[in-house]
Amino acid sequence: MATIDLERLESVFSGIDIPLSDGQISSFATYSDMLVEKNKVMNLTAVTDPEGIVIKHFADSCLPLKIANVPRGAKLIDVGTGAGFPSIPMKIVRPDLEITLLDSLNKRVNFLNDVSAALNLGAECIHSRAEDGARTALRESFDVATARAVARLSVLSEYCLPYVKPGGMFLALKGSGCADEIADAKEIIAKLGGKIAQITEYQLPNGDGRTLVVIEKISPTGKEYPRRVVK
Question: In whole angstroms, how far apart are CA 221 and each of 4, 36, 73, 149, 156?
Fold first, then answer.
């Protein structure tokens, strides 16, 4: 028996105008099963109930694809991906995307490799701190960076924008009521070569508020960023 209600999954995604094929439904089912099983032995997520997985993980991860114009075949890096959100759900509904998942905990990276293999995602899963990975060949090599972390936007921007090539974008998935946080981040975003292009407030199917901040990369990031200790 699947961890999640597959009819509910299909209904929720139909409601957000992302129709799922039988193969995509099967991938989400396998992913949720692996997530719940692995969570018994390591801390991947606090949300493990069937409705929470469908709404707060899967729908939450994919809704930004309905808001931002992510190009076909884009190279995407998910910085501090944790259990694979938002990039793995994005890849399931947009198989054209080429995803790289970066996390600082090796146990999580092992889990992500297992999920990628089970779902045939072809994801590159990298064990690295965000500030270290940005000083490798990964720097400014992606069309899109994503982050769904709880850190403030100013910190996330310094971690993520160095990975984005000029002309690309950083998608920051935030909660509601983050106007002050966005205002505080504008100065460092400009220093990093970015510009806030879009701020969209929306709701998950359960009514929870979300904000998507789309930051365009308009010029290369200075070599001093990201700093070792981001404030």
Answer: 42, 39, 24, 21, 14
The pairing of beta strand 142-147 with beta strand 75-79: parallel
Torsion angle (degrees, nearest 10) of CA 201, 202, 204, 209: 40
Are 62 and 97 contacting, i.e. CB atoms less than 8 angstroms apart? no
Residue pair 104/129 in contact by the 8 Å Cβ criterion: yes
Answer whether 13's CB lies under 8 Å from 57's CB.
Answer: no
Q: Which residues pair with 144 in a beta bridge?
A: 76, 169
The answer to whether residue 231 scores a pLDDT higher than 60 is no
Q: With a threshold of 0.90, does the pTM exceed it? A: yes
pLDDT digits (tens, 9 = 90+) for 204-217: 999 999 999 999 99
Distances (CA, A) of 27 to 68, 91, 132, 225: 24, 10, 32, 37
- Angle 214-170-19 from CA coordinates, rounded to 5°: 70
Q: Quick one: three-class SS letters along 98-165?
A: EEEEEECCHHHHHHHHHHHHHHCCCCEEEECCHHHHCCCCCCCCEEEEEECCCCCHHHHHHHHHHHEE
Residue 164 bridge partners (DSSP): 142
Phi, psi of 104 (to 5 degrees): -85, -10
